[in-house]
Amino acid sequence: MRTRLPMPLPPARKQVDHGSIDHLELSRLGIDPSSILDFSSNIMPVEPSPLVWQAIQSVRWDAYPDRHCMELIAAIADLHQIPPDGILVGNGCCDLIHTVAGSVLQAGDLAMVVGPTFSEYARCSHLAGARVIEVPIRFPVRESSQLLHELGNSIEESKPQVVWLCNPNNPTGDYIESEKIFELANRYAKVKWIVDESYIDFVSRPSLLDLPQLNNVIVLRSMTKYYAMAGLRLGYAAMESELRDRWAEAQIPWQVNAIAQAAGVAAIESKPHYDHAMQSLALETLRLRSRLVDAGFAPNPTETGYFLLPVEDATSTRNKLIQKGILVRDCTSFGLRSHLRISVRSRLENERFIDAIGSRELRYHPSSELDADRSSHCES
Ligand SMILES: Cc1ncc(COP(=O)(O)O)c(C=O)c1O
Fold it and tell me: What is the 132 CA–ligand 1 centroid distance (Å)?
């Protein structure tokens, strides 16, 4: 296996690639967004619970929302059995990623990104004036202890002020045991650990929120994925209360709108509705992966509701699929130019995907060495 040296990332202050429908791209292609099946955003395929519908319909939007999000914070604290004074709510996890970078990073600091992973960690660190290195150890997926051992070595060599870790990871879908992350964060206590658990509910495995709070750890959660409210925008962060207060001081007032707050409270109250959908998603993920194997593909293992799919050329495959009404995530911007990321949808929709990707002009020829895919220059 190749040695995995930390790579300095060139400043990426501009917008970076993401999954989901890009309305500008579709208007240039002359494609109606409503004709597209989106397999590129990792969102639970579920209808809102009846409680969420009710909550949304009863919100008054002619008044300002509660700028402290008190009811929602109480619901989150109750859900995780953690103190409310360490919780901050944001307008989606991405909002929190950007504001936390501004709170914990100083110009000239070193931020370490455990990659390949979500591109906003590098981007917001650059925007905060930090230098950024990526430790490219999450692809191909390996055993957690080995991965964390390598990460420990990189921390000792490079001495970063901040480590960004996504668990489970986007785009690889692998999970690292939270107890092991806790141990490492405890060992490197001068480093601030920002652990993004936006997909943790998709794996039913322990979270850092189940363990004692460490002063140097900030846990980020999105509510847009598991509770399928990407358009509403909602996320939260948990940390020790002093840091939380400093960060809250810097937040834009009324950052979280009243509808998102009400929907968030109702979604937490109706968590069994989403847990039930998760059980179906887990089964459908197994089924879709096995259908792809039958069709001659070699989907990567995953612990979540999305997975990497090796193809010859991710960009051209994505572009051909979009003409067939199927949107997938081209992973070239993660440095994985021969991989697509596929988010599992309903059975019928997944069958449409299989038909499209199995069609003659998209026939797949397996590449011999997955690891060779990781390009040496990675932007996100
Ligand atoms: C790992 C990760 N964190 C955060 C986000 C953004 O979440 P939100 O929609 O809550 O801003 C994404 C979106 O794709 C993501 O993949």
Answer: 20
